[in-house]
Each structure stands twice: as structure tokens, then as C-alpha cells.
Amino acid sequence: MTFTQLQYIIAVDNHRHFAKAAEACHVTQPTLSMQIQKLEDELGVILFDRSKHPVRPTVIGERILEQARKAVNEGQRIIQLTQIEKGKFEGEFKIGVIPTVSPQLLPRFLSRFNNKFPGIQLIVEELQTDQCIERLYRDELDVAILATPLDKKNLIEEPLYYEPFVAYIPDGHRLYNEKFVLNSELSLTDMLLLTEGHCFRNSILNLCEARDIEKGKKLRLESGNFETLTRLSKLGYGMTLLPYLAAADLSKEEQQFVRPIADPTPSREISLVYSKSQLKKGLLKELAAIIKSVIPEKLQHEKEQVLKPM
Hints:
By secondary structure, this protein is an alpha/beta fold. The chain has three domains: about 5-85, Winged helix-like DNA-binding domain superfamily/Winged helix DNA-binding domain (Arc Repressor Mutant, subunit A, Orthogonal Bundle), CATH 1.10.10.10; about 90-160 and about 270-305, Periplasmic binding protein-like II (D-Maltodextrin-Binding Protein, domain 2, 3-Layer(aba) Sandwich); about 160-265, D-Maltodextrin-Binding Protein, domain 2, CATH 3.40.190.10. It is about 45% helix and about 20% strand. Helix 2 (about 20-25) crosses helix 3 (about 30-45). The longest helix has 28 residues, at about 60-85. It is elongated and about 75 Å long. The two termini are about 40 Å apart.
């Protein structure tokens, strides 16, 4: 039994597909399949039911995979411990980030991080919250940048900043001539929303208490990005809400449609989320410091009305 064989069976379990597992492990499928077959022969058991699509572990396979994950994780921790002792930051560092944060945040800090840690191979994936949580539990991510609080078992949440919501209101809308918007004036009847699965959408539904979502809508359209929402808003299909950094990146022409929301201003908490067993805490500390250095200081103070993302 080898460390590599354990990594291969974990990859098959993660992807439930031999070809995809081989690609993730950077080997050919015959090589991966041969090594898994050798392991099965050595153990005298079948680890995967290959007749199922997608491939599924057998009952004994599930138990062995549980132990394999522990063994591989502990082996990786040995390497991490030696790097910590030497004060080195090397190897892969895997970050998950939600789509409503990545377009504004990543360009602000990635170059600083790469310049400071040239020995780190940074792997960044744009994933929704549930996907990030699942991958954190499976040790497929070192850290995720998520809207919190989530209150998930065995995950630590370290707040980075608190991002207010602002209203994007087109000319001709009932609120266009207002200098600011009240919470009570927000209604889902004329609100363009992100698609289901986005935590920013959930926060808006919580803010508006999901009232009258169908009634009186000119267009029931849900998009996966803020740019689509603002473009449709300008065409008269309703208003939308944006996080502060997304609004700050709008052009000068677009800024005329942005209105602040009166106190208590709804906001979201953006945090680093990682496993309690994570050993790369020195690198996490550096990442947090770099992100905070590129975020306006006024966003780093806790806000009164933080909306839960789930």
C-alpha cells in the first residue's frame, strides 16, 4: 500500500469518475486504474462498484476511504509542519471564493499576494457557498472567502470586512429622485435578483422578508452576475441591490444610479473560513492582512445590520 494509491482512491471518490480522477492527479487513466487494482488485490476487497454511473464506493470501500483520507491528511500535515518550522511558505494554496465577491476582491489582492509569496502556487476557484463548505470538509480547499455567519461545525470564521448594500435605481423608477432609500421602501415586486444558490440573493430575501415576490413584476429574471442586473435595470425592468465594492467599481456614468440605504444599512460580513485542523495558519494570517490592506478602512468596522447569507 502506498501514499499515492490512497490519493488515487480519494480522487475517484471525489470525482466519481476514473478519467476525471486521473486528470486531477495528473496521470493517465490506465496508470490510475492499475494502481487502484493493485491496492484492491493487496487488500483482497473491491473498493468501487464500477457498474454504477457515476462510480460509487462499496460498503467496505467507504470505510477504507474514510481511513485513507485521515492517512493522507496526516501525511500532508507532516510536510506542512516542517515548512512551518523552517518559516517557509511553499507549495499549493487552494482558495475558494464566492462569485459575488471574486470579481471585486481578487483583482485587489492577488498580485500583492503573489509578489510576497513567489514560492506559493495559488489555486483559486470560484464556487458557491455550499460547494466551498463541502470542499473544506473534504480538505480540497485550504480556505474559502465567504459571506458569514454560517456557524458550521469544525469551521472557523475570521471576519475580514463588512460590506454595505447600496441600491441601484434607474431613471424613471419610483425611488430615483430619492437621495437615500429606506429599508421599508425596498420591495421584491420591482427587484432584480441573482439566481438561486447565491448567498447575496438570500440576504436580499431575508431583508425584504420574501414578500410579494411575484406580484406586479414586469420581468421575472434572475441572473448570475451583477452586470446583467444593472444593464436590465437601466432598461426599466426594476431596481437591484449591489454590494459596496461592486458599486465602487462602476463607471462614473453608472454611479448616478447608486443610492445609499439609510441606517440601519444592511450589510454582509465577508470572512476567511477554514477548518479547525488547518495547519497553514501562518499563511492564512498573511492572506487576511493583505486583503485588509486593500479594503477601505471604513469597511473593517462591524455593522449594525449584518444579514445572514443562508
